[in-house]
Amino acid sequence: MTSTPTAGKAGRRRDPEKDAQILQATLDVLAETDYADVTIELVAARAGAGRHTIYRRWEGKDELILAAIACTDSANLGPDGLPDTGTLRSDFLALLDPNWMGGSERRLRILSSVSAMITRTTRAVDAVTKAIVDPSTAAYRFLIQRAVDRGEYAPPRNLDALAQVIPSMAAYRAFFMQQVVDEEFMLSIIDGVVLAALREPSAADDHLNEQDQPLT
Amino acid sequence: MTSTPTAGKAGRRRDPEKDAQILQATLDVLAETDYADVTIELVAARAGAGRHTIYRRWEGKDELILAAIACTDSANLGPDGLPDTGTLRSDFLALLDPNWMGGSERRLRILSSVSAMITRTTRAVDAVTKAIVDPSTAAYRFLIQRAVDRGEYAPPRNLDALAQVIPSMAAYRAFFMQQVVDEEFMLSIIDGVVLAALREPSAADDHLNEQDQPLT
Amino acid sequence: MTSTPTAGKAGRRRDPEKDAQILQATLDVLAETDYADVTIELVAARAGAGRHTIYRRWEGKDELILAAIACTDSANLGPDGLPDTGTLRSDFLALLDPNWMGGSERRLRILSSVSAMITRTTRAVDAVTKAIVDPSTAAYRFLIQRAVDRGEYAPPRNLDALAQVIPSMAAYRAFFMQQVVDEEFMLSIIDGVVLAALREPSAADDHLNEQDQPLT
Amino acid sequence: MTSTPTAGKAGRRRDPEKDAQILQATLDVLAETDYADVTIELVAARAGAGRHTIYRRWEGKDELILAAIACTDSANLGPDGLPDTGTLRSDFLALLDPNWMGGSERRLRILSSVSAMITRTTRAVDAVTKAIVDPSTAAYRFLIQRAVDRGEYAPPRNLDALAQVIPSMAAYRAFFMQQVVDEEFMLSIIDGVVLAALREPSAADDHLNEQDQPLT
DNA sequence: CGATAAACGAGACGGTACGTCGCGTCTTCTG
DNA sequence: CAGAAGACGCGACGTACCGTCTCGTTTATCG
Fold first, then answer.
1. Under a CB-based contact definition with an 8 Å cutoff, are residues C3 and C14 in contact?
2. A154 with A205: CB under 8 angstroms?
3. In chain D, which residue's Cα lies nearest the Cα of C126?
4. Which residue minimizes Cα–C1' distance to F21?
5. CA 20 to 30 Å from C69, out of A184, C82, D140, D195?
6. How far apart are CA B157 and CA B215, in angstroms?
7. Can you tell me the mean pLDDT for B5-19?
8. Of D175 and B26, which is predicted with more confidence?
9. b or e along D131-144 (b: 16 or more beta carbons within 10 Å of the residue's beta carbon)?
10. pLDDT digit string (tens) for B81-103?
11. Chain C hits for D213, Cβ within 8 Å
């Protein structure tokens, strides 16, 4: 997106490793300090790069940070990377540790930094949505749907809404309240909200378990 | 020397009207531009004040913005200001419009600006907690508790968690996804999550009100 | 010229001492290093000032250096500061040491630095002319005229041309040839050129000695 | 070892025409803009060359400019190229036009650019000395000596000093004062200084040619 | 004649100075 | 003394040029 990797033109190619180094340095700095203290100079120094090398790739500070966020590997939230413990409740708990919000302090601090841009740039919203919001929601939706499929719960009235409960509440607590998202908190919303909103399957649901049922 | 009319000090009094003008100007600027573009110079110009007059009153940019936000009257979320429509569902809907997150675009933009400070300043967290988080949670808890009290629903397993569902999800949508919190969305979480997690009271519930009832 | 010293307006006055400190620092740096190595940052640091303070007073690097050159105290080349030894020859020699070209290494290095600007800026020419060229020429013209007035020499055919001989040749040697302007060299042009071009007064000149005689 | 016509190396030969193109482009750019605005990039573009091609040939910007100036053919100041009009005065005037300082505006601008380097690079001094100072002085010394030899003037006390008068004063005027060196100016120094410092030969001069004659 | 080696246009790269802007502090004058 | 005006030290911003270093292509000489 930032570079046209192999255009059949002359001239030295942009070092693709530099991209990675710079983005990594950006994330590192972002994790350590505040958005306002993220200096292009500092990022460049960390990445062993010159300032101009950064400006050649991204339009400015914001674009750089956005790109860094975007490259946060949220790929472990794909179906393959998700836990499969047998019950939805323990799946949720298993997701706590490596998951973005309850995960490392680092991930949270990085996210917090983006917030400084989210108001002004549509791109910031897109980046956050793509890197964090969508993957999280998708992961939770997958887990719930699987539990329904295996007959653990009846199909919920609104799967989409339910899938957003945990990420929303975790983010709210972590970001606006700046409080840790620990197991106690997770359990309170797992048991008190999500699982409470699910029902055990009725007898009539048995035939539908293996079929596609439109979600609305 | 004999008559010190106002206070025991000599010299010109601080113009109390300036406080209001400056805070108003801060909110105005905050509403139209980004946090990073909120310049003390600009605020001062808008307020018809000098920069030093601002620094005499607040410690710096952050404190100024915090003070400006703090003076936003969100106090209509007290028990007296809350709707009482007869059912919890319509109470929730009645809360949508005047509520902060579903409120005016202006209010959202102003509040979004705090996010730029929330990471570094403990005071920002306090301000947000005091102005937004606590009132919202308290309001929703009040509404739910009232519905339980009037026998509309059985006492939930975790009232605190449930009370935070709506503000969390609304904030997440409005802030991180930058999408409108309209009635459709509210209904999806009211019906799909909150009300789904509540049970109608059984006959036995009269005695069980204060007890845990195992899920299985 | 750079500041309007006492306009009846509000606001902090520009520190007049800063002007001096900055100009002095500029001259110092100019004397030590090359034009290209004169950094605003360095000058500011030397002067104990911020970069912005410099840019507030002068438009840029060139203007700063020009101003610094202009403030070089060439006032000791006024009639009062000139030597009066009794003979033109020893007057010339007496001028060697404190004089600009034969003077301090410092003065020469400073001049050399301006040369980098003299091509592009008309202002540079003006500054050099005002600070160096004119004072030197005027000084030599004064000395020669005084010698003529006292009857040491007959009025020269072209006083202006003669007055420029020494500064021109000293500058040429010092700047283009980068060789020292020492007493030996000075004597060679004093005796070989200037004094050689002057004549002893004829008998008829005696009456005119004390009168004004137009030069061209 | 006897006949290695080109060189014992493989690989593509350096395009000798590129040298010329680059030097020409350098001179062109030098003539129209200031030293500081002479960009390697710009020169390369003008010459239809790549920057690296320039750096392969010269060590840097300074060396390039020096080389460009060095290739300016100012060698028409040799004894054969000098005018021989019969009198020293008209010889001087005849030298005005094609001479470097009185020469084209272009030539002056180009040479002025060296001044930016003359302080830091010894090579610049050498180049200037070789290209300008020495030829000019030699030319004027030759003309004066010839006039003396033909009996037009008595041998001057210091031929070297006298030979530098015109180039020095012309350079001073052209460079430091940035004023044209026209016939009027030349006449003023020819008549007012150089010729004034020369004496018509006395009868006794035939024997005294090699002796000093005291001024008094 | 094909392999190899250098030159070449293009342009990425690490530095470093530029000139601009905002912050928070300070001084000066006016009411 | 408060208040408006604005100078001041600091430090980040984004731009430009320097000189070096790849790239892929072209051109020459040697095996």
1. yes
2. yes
3. D177
4. A12
5. C82
6. 10
7. 73
8. B26
9. bbbebbbebbebbb
10. 788 999 999 999 988 766 555 45
11. none
The Cα B110–Cα B124 span in angstroms is 13
| Residue whose CA lies closest to nucleotide F25 C1' | A10
Subunits in contact with chain B (3 or more CB pairs closer than 8 Å): A
Return the SS3 of B126.
helix
A97-106, B69-78, D75-84, D106-115: the lowest-pLDDT one: A97-106
Cite the DSSP H helix spans in B9-73. Answer: 16-32, 40-47, 51-57, 61-70
**pLDDT for C2 beyond 60:** no
Number of A–B residue contacts, CB under 8 Å: 138
A111 vs A129: CA distance, rounded Å: 11
Nucleotides of F under 7 A from a protein CB: 1-30
Are D177 and C119 within 8 A, CB to CB?
no
State whether residue D138 sits within 8 Å of chain C by CB.
no
Q: Is the CB of A13 under 7 A from strand F?
A: yes
pLDDT at C16 over 90: yes
Q: Read off the pLDDT of each residue in B109-124 and give the average, rounded to a whole number.
A: 78
Distances (CA, A) of B58 to B11, B24, B55, B63: 20, 14, 5, 6
**Which of C115, C132, C159, C190 is the best substitution to test chain D (most D C-beta atoms within 10 A)?**
C115
pLDDT band at C74 (very low <50, low <70, confident <90, very high): low
**Would you say B157 and B164 are in contact if contact means Cβ atoms under 8 Å apart?**
no
Say yes or no for a CB contact (<8 Å) between B161 and A118.
no
Which of A144-148, A178-182, B150-154, B185-189 has the lowest average pLDDT? Answer: A178-182
3-state SS, residue D57 = helix
Please give the angle made by the CA atoms of B81, B85 and B89, to the nearest 5 degrees.
Answer: 105
Q: Quickly tell me which residue has 């919000």 as its tokens.
A: A101
Helix (H) or strand (E) holding D39: none
How far apart, in whole angstroms, are the C-alpha atoms of residue B213 and residue A21? 54
Q: What is the pLDDT of residue A18?
A: 95
pLDDT-based confidence at B40, cuts 50/70/90?
Answer: very high
Q: How near does any CA of chain A get to the CA of B197, in Å? A: 4
Contact A165 B160 (CB under 8 A): no
Q: Does A167 touch chain B (CB under 8 A)?
A: yes
Token pair for residue C199?
Answer: 């004549």
Q: How far is the CA of D57 from the C1' of E23 (A)?
A: 49
Residue C177: which of D120, D129, D193 has the nearest Cβ? D129
- Give D-chain residues touching C171 at CB under 8 angstroms: 168, 172, 176
Regions of chain D short of the pLDDT cut 70 = 1-8, 73-77, 97-105, 107-108, 203-216
Q: Which of A66-75, A85-94, C56-65 has the lowest mean pLDDT?
A: A66-75
Dist CA A155 CA A197 (whole Å): 11
Q: Which two tokens stand for residue C53?
A: 């303070």
Q: Per-residue confidence at A111, pLDDT binned at 50, 70, 90? A: confident
Best mutation target among C30, C175, C182, C200 (most D Cβ atoms within 10 Å) is: C175
Partners of residue A158 in chain B, C-beta under 8 Å: 188, 191-193, 196
DSSP annotation of A133? I
Nearest to D173 by CA among C167, C97, C48, B154: C167
Cβ burial D28-42 (10 Å sphere, 16+ → b, else e):
bbbeebbbbebebee
> Distance between CA C111 and CA B61 in Å, rounded?
47
Note the pLDDT tens digit of each residue in C94-146.
887 665 444 556 766 777 777 778 877 788 888 888 888 888 899 999 999 99
Residue A178: other Cβ atoms inside 10 A: 17
- Give the amino acid at B197: A
